[in-house]
Design a protein that fits this description.
This protein is of the alpha+beta class. It is 22% helix and 40% strand. 19% of the residues are buried.
């Protein structure tokens, strides 16, 4: 499994936005669907909240891809 670092300047990024920004999904609608279907994990646990706030150090995974939130500063 490869890990993609996602640098953010803000305090948090929404899960659906993070999946889209990382290139794991093509659209926000696709992100909503896979999250609501329980296909995404956040910090190792299934998450069905598309508005889940990911903060520094959090990780999310979908279809063998993983992203980790890091600080852009």
């Amino acid at each position: 499994m490869s890990v993609k670092e996602l640098s953010i300047k803000e305090e948090f990024i929404r899960l659906d936005s993070a999946l889209k920004l990382a290139g794991f999904v093509a659209t926000g609608g696709h992100a909503k669907m896979v999250i609501q279907n329980g296909e995404v994990t956040v910090n190792g646990e299934v998450c069905t909240q598309r508005g889940k706030k990911l903060r520094l150090g959090d990780s999310a995974a979908f279809e063998g891809n993983q992203l980790k939130i890091s600080n852009a500063g």
